[in-house]
Amino acid sequence: MLPDLVHAWFTDHARDLPWRRPGTTPWGVLVSEVMLQQTPVARVAPVWTDWTARWPVPSAFAAASRADVLRAWGKLGYPRRALRLHDAAAVIAQRHGDVVPADVAALEALPGVGTYTARAVLAFGYGRRAPVVDTNVRRVVARAVHGAGDAGPARTKPDLADVDALLPADDARAAVVSAGLMELGAVVCTARAPRCGACPVAHVCAWQAAGRPAYDGPRRPVQGFAGTDRQVRGKLLDVLRAAEAPVERAALDAVWADAGQRDRCLLSLLEDGLAEQTADDRFALPA
Q1: Segment (H or E) for 157
Q2: Could you say which of 33, 108, 244, 271 is catalytic?
Q3: Could you tell me which residue, 85 or 232, shows the higher pLDDT?
Q4: Which residues contact 179 (CB under 8 A, 6 or more apart)?
Q5: What pLDDT score was predicted for residue 161?
Q6: How far is it, in rounded angstroms, from Cα 182 to Cα 176?
Q7: What CA–CA distance (Å, rounded) separates 184 from 194?
Q8: Annotated catalytic residue 33
Q9: Could you give all domains of the chain from N- to C-terminal order, each with its CATH number?
Q10: Which of 82, 133, 151, 190 lies most in the core, judged by the most C-beta atoms within 10 Å?
Q11: Angle CA(41)–CA(45)–CA(49) in degrees, nearest 5?
């Protein structure tokens, strides 16, 4: 019953996101899934639209310079994702005929593609039956199926099995249910303020039936941003993205007062391949 309710609700209430529109290729879905990791939909949508227009197939993206890739990535955060996607595009172009593979093992073999992303591409890019499990899906299953207030720490195999048990046998319906479970967790069955009055499965929800008990298990720590190395790395990359030529060290020194933290973050950018030092000791995005 729950899968049918989710299917009907999603069919009528799905958000109009650009990567859900007709004509989106599996490549477009892969790009969206990489961009959406730890980044809100509103920030991703315009970047994804420009990105897929500029690089509509993996080979086009693979041919781009890493500097162009990082500039196009802009302020999405966690820019190593962009370089891993760049590497994945090269593999797709060279080994898969410029077509994103439609096989879990082949997808998971791509740089930067893990358990979640591989199955998301199968479900949303190819309309296949695949258990797609993210934080939102785990929360919906924890509440609706198990009667718990939240899902607790991730457990890959049990989580996949839980979702797999909910999916219809038919590929097309299963793909819609996968998308619907994720959407339900994102916009209705939210972590802090679930809108149970608007939930299509409230009357079959085990958590509702149990009186919505509070979750008292372990929680993921909330990560701050201000003053972190991640913020400093972002500021340093902003300087490099805005520059048309390599910059002097002074331009980087000016963006953060703590010299020790700034130096540590610059070194990490160099080690991660997100920046390069020239022979004359200036700094730039990688070629």
Answers
A1: helix 156-166
A2: 33
A3: 85
A4: 10, 14, 20, 123, 124, 132
A5: 96
A6: 10
A7: 10
A8: yes
A9: 1-220 (1.10.340.30), 229-284 (1.10.10)
A10: 133
A11: 160
